[in-house]
Amino acid sequence: MPILRLHQLRTRHVGPIELSVDAGECVCVHGASGSGKTLLLRAIADLDAHAGDAYLDAQPCTMLAAPEWRRSVALVAAESQWWGERVGDHFETDIDAGWLQQLGLPEEAIDWQLSRCSTGERQRLALLRTLMHEPAVLLLDEPTGNLDQESTRRVEELLADYRRQRHVAVLWVSHDSAQIERVAHRSFLLRDGGLAEEKRVPRCR
Ligand SMILES: Nc1ncnc2c1ncn2[C@@H]1O[C@H](COP(=O)(O)OP(=O)(O)OP(=O)(O)O)[C@@H](O)[C@H]1O
């Protein structure tokens, strides 16, 4: 059963889009810079005005309060947002030490000042912040865009474990065709406002 379903979804540059992402499935979207990938994810997260509908299971976005929808259908933006001084100010509970280790971050990272964090450290910490809210759907906007090869692999592995264990639906925007080959069950090219399916592999991973 699809956990995320888009019906006639239209943003400023994209649509109408029909798309379903199943529980435990990873769907990748790529396309030229400026083709509207970020705006599509923001519309699904109900952060920008849009027409058409997004559903979580059978429930339309319009039936849920915006914070509730965004907690379940969570966007990890390409540029993470921070407001407090310490990393720990942004987490309601302690970060799972195993997750930090899996991402190559030390346990003390929770006590770091944001001002000292590198872009790549911020990107990994922002991903953990989102995962800790246990969303049913993950919308990922170039989640490894600032990372070296090893950190990229670590993020890919953590996300695969998380998706499989919790049957999360993942919609992943990436510019990296090798990454899409590694992580996607299906992939789509976003061009001229529409999604064209390119790849489908049996769901055995
Ligand atoms: N607030 C806005 N007002 C007007 N135009 C916007 C706004 N935000 C984005 N755009 C335009 O919409 C188009 C799509 O932007 P979007 O950020 O979705 O592209 P993208 O496919 O994610 O690109 P990239 O791969 O470079 O991140 C771009 O031409 C961008 O300039």
What can you tell me about this protein's structure?
- This protein is α/β, with parallel strands linked by helices.
- 29% of the residues lie in helices and 27% in strands.
- The protein has a single domain, classed as Rossmann fold.
- The strands form two sheets. The protein has a six-stranded mixed β-sheet, with helices on both faces. The protein has a four-stranded antiparallel β-sheet with strand order 2-1-4-5, covered by helices on one side.
- Strand 9 and strand 10 form a beta hairpin.
- Adenosine-5'-triphosphate binds next to helix 1.
- InterPro entries: AAA+_ATPase, ABC_transporter-like_ATP-bd, P-loop_NTPase.
- It comes from Accumulibacter regalis.
Please supply descriptive tags for the structure shown above.
membrane; Rossmann fold; six-stranded mixed sheet; 6 helices; alpha/beta; binds adenosine-5'-triphosphate; four-stranded antiparallel sheet; 205 residues; globular; single chain
Outline:
The protein is 29% helix and 27% strand. By secondary structure, it is of the alpha/beta class.
Q: What is the subunit organization of this protein?
A: single chain
Shape: globular
Describe the largest sheet: 6 strands, mixed
Radius of gyration of CA atoms, rounded to a whole number: 16 Å
What percent strand?
Answer: 25-35%
> Which runs of at least 5 residues are low in confidence (pLDDT < 50)?
none
Tally of DSSP β-strands: 10
Helix/strand-derived class?
alpha/beta
How many structural domains are formed by the residues?
A: 1
- For the record, what CATH class applies? Alpha Beta
Fraction of residues in helix = 25-40%
GO molecular function: ATP binding; ATP hydrolysis activity
Domain ABC transporter: 4-205
Keywords: ATP-binding, Cell membrane, Membrane, Nucleotide-binding
Pfam families: ABC_tran
